Amino acid sequence: MNKKSTAGQDHFFAIIPAGGVGSRLWPLSRANAPKFLHDLTGSGQTLLQDTWDRLSPLVGNRMMVVTGDVHATTVAKHLPDLDPANLILEPSPKDSTAAIALAAAVLYKRDPEVIVGSFAADHVIKDDEKLLHAIEASIEIAATGKIVTIGIVPTEASSAFGYVKKGPAIAGTEGFEVADFIEKPNIKKAQKFAASKKYLWNAGMFIAPAKLLLDVLAKTQPKLHAGVMELAEHWDTENRTEKLHSIWPGLDKIAIDYAIAEPAAKLGLVAVVPGNFEWHDVGDFAAIAELQSQGNSNNLAVLGSAKVLSDSSSGILVSDTNRLVALIGLEDIIVVDTADALLITTKAHAQKVKAMVEALKQTGHSDLL
Question: Alpha-carbon distance 225 to 49, whole Å?
C-alpha cells in the first residue's frame, strides 16, 4: 500500500452492498439482524465492520453503504466513520443491480470520472494486502474502459460457486479478458475447472467506471437504468424521499451478473484479475465450521456467549444466549441457540436450512424470520 496512487485511484470509491437475509444462517441471521451484522469469524466485530476496515487503507472513508432502511441505526453505529451522505437506504430489497447501480449513479452525479468497486459486506478474506493489491491492479485496467472482476484462484473443486473463464492476457497488466461466466457447475465440471487453471471463482467483486456500468445497464435493462438515474438526479436534494418512494417499488429485481457482467462480457468489456488469497462467502453454517476449524485444535468451535460442556463432540456451536449447552458423542454437529429458536443439524445437511426457512414462511411463522 506504499505505492503512489494513480489517477484512477484518486477517483476510486468503494460500494458495500449490505443486503440479503442469509436464510441458510437462520436462526442467527434474521430479517432485522442479517449475517453482515454478526461476528461469524471470532474477530470481535461484525462482517460489515471487517469489510470497512479491510478497504479503508486504500480508500479511507470513500465508501458508500447500501442497506435496508431497517438497518440504518445499526449500520451507522457500527460504522462511525461513514459519512451520512454515503448511506443509501433501500425501502425494500431489490437484489444487487438496483443497489449497486443506484450507488454508482449517485457517485457519478457527484464525480463523472468516478471508478467504483463493489464489495459484499458479508465475505471473509484472510489476506487484506493481497486483496488490496488485486483492487489496485483492477483499477488500472478499469481506467482503460473495462468492467473488472476479481476472480479467486480455486483451492479446491467446488460446486458452491460460479466460475469465470479466463481469456487472453491483457498486455502490461495482471488481468485477462473474460471468456465466459459459468453458473455453479456439478462436481465433475468443477473438478475439470480446478485442474485446467483457466477458471476462477466468481466472488462478485466488480470494479469499473460508473459511467460504463450505467451505459451497459441502459442497454440491458433500460427501465431500471432510467429509474436509478432519475433517483440519482434528485438524491442530493429535498426531493429524495418523495422520488425514492415513487420510483423504487417499480424497479426490477435482478442480479448484477445477469444485468451487467454477463452481457458486458459478450461485448468484450469485462476483464478479470486473479486474486490469490483466502476467500469465504460463509454461505451456511458448514462454511463457518470449516472456517473456525482452521488452526483450531479443539474439535468443537464455539462462537458467542454460550456455556459449553463437550465430550467427544465436533462441529460448531453458535449462541447468543447464556444458557448451558452440553454435547456428548456428536460428530460434525451444528447447534445454533437463540432466545426464541434452536437449530440442531449436521454439517452435511447445512444447506437444507434454507428449506426450513421456506417451511416457516409457508406455515405462518414469519415472526421467527
Answer: 30
Cell readout for 172 is 502490461
For residue 2, being part of any structural domain is answered with no
b/e 144-158 (16+ beta carbons within 10 angstroms → b): eebbbbbbbebeeeb
How far out from the chain centre does Cα 282 lie? Answer: 10
Q: Say how far apart CA 62 and CA 355 lie, in whole Å.
A: 38
Contact (Cβ atoms closer than 8 angstroms) between residue 147 and residue 212: yes
Beta bridge pairs of residue 191: none
The set of residues, in sequence order, having a beta carbon less than 8 Å from that of 339 and lying 6+ positions away, is 320, 321
**Final residue before a domain boundary, out of 280, 297, 317:** 280
- Residue 146 backbone phi and psi in degrees, to 5: -130, 150
Question: Residue 161 to residues 60, 181, 338, 356: CA-CA distances in angstroms?
Answer: 30, 11, 29, 22
Q: How many CB atoms lie within 10 A of CB 214?
A: 19
Q: Do 221 and 100 fall within a single domain?
A: yes
Confidence (pLDDT) at 353: 87
Domain boundary among 280, 314, 332: 280
Are 138 and 84 members of one domain? yes
pLDDT, mean of residues 238-247: 94
What is the value of pTM for the model shown?
0.89
Is there a single domain that holds both residue 210 and residue 305?
no
Residue 271 amino acid letter: A
Q: Using CB atoms within 10 A of its CB, is residue 182 exposed (0-12), middle (13-18) or buried (19+)? A: middle
The CATH number covering residue 42 comes to: 3.90.550.10
pLDDT in tens, 86-143: 999 999 988 899 999 999 999 999 999 999 999 999 999 988 999 999 999 999 999 9
In a domain, residue 228? The reply is yes
**pLDDT tens sequence across 275-324:** 999 998 887 888 788 777 665 556 888 887 778 888 988 888 888 888 89
Give the whole-angstrom CA distance, residue 160 versus residue 201: 9
Query: By residue range, what is the domain housing residue 140?
Result: 7-280
Region 20-42: what's the mean pLDDT? 82
- State the Cα–Cα distance between residues 133 and 208, nearest whole angstrom: 16
Counting the structural domains of the chain, the total is 2
